[in-house]
Amino acid sequence: MQLASLVAVLAAALSVSAHFTLTTPPTRGFDELVEDVGPCGGFDTPSATRAVFSSSSNITVRFADSKGSASVKLAVGEAPAAFPITLGSVELRKRGVYNLPFDLSAVDVSNNGASATIQISISSSHGTLFQCSDVVLAL
């Protein structure tokens, strides 16, 4: 009985260890138990503060799996639910810290100064996980 309990605890620990953390710009929130809930990893309420985001900004994640695919999307607005603008994607080949590539050329320059939300999704053998960051565009 104790062995079965130990196996269950180890399996649970392994299943939640395959996550990522958005560190820059600041994440809206992080809870590995709901990180698979789209569109923002269980955090649907926008942040009270927004980071300024421009083409010289970084999008940095700490990836805790052996491989996966990251996608960077954007939506303009105060509290978007869909993310129609793809800014970039990249294959992640090992655990570590990554600066994700992105291209703001698809964002209309008339959105300069607008509130927006960046969505990071990472798909791996453990499924798709999400995090968001609320920003102000500096185009």
UniProtKB/TrEMBL annotation:
Entry keywords, A to Z: Cell membrane, Glycoprotein, Lipoprotein, Membrane, Signal
Membrane topology recorded in Swiss-Prot or TrEMBL: Lipid-anchor
Positions of the Copper acquisition factor BIM1-like domain: 17-137
Lineage top rank: taxon: Eukaryota
Membrane-spanning ranges: none
Residues annotated as signal peptide: 1-18
CDD domains in UniProt: LPMO_auxiliary-like (cd21176)
Subcellular location: Cell membrane; Endomembrane system
Stored PANTHER family: COPPER ACQUISITION FACTOR BIM1-LIKE DOMAIN-CONTAINING PROTEIN (PTHR34992:SF1), HYPHAL ANASTAMOSIS-7 PROTEIN (PTHR34992)
Name of this chain's protein: Copper acquisition factor BIM1-like domain-containing protein
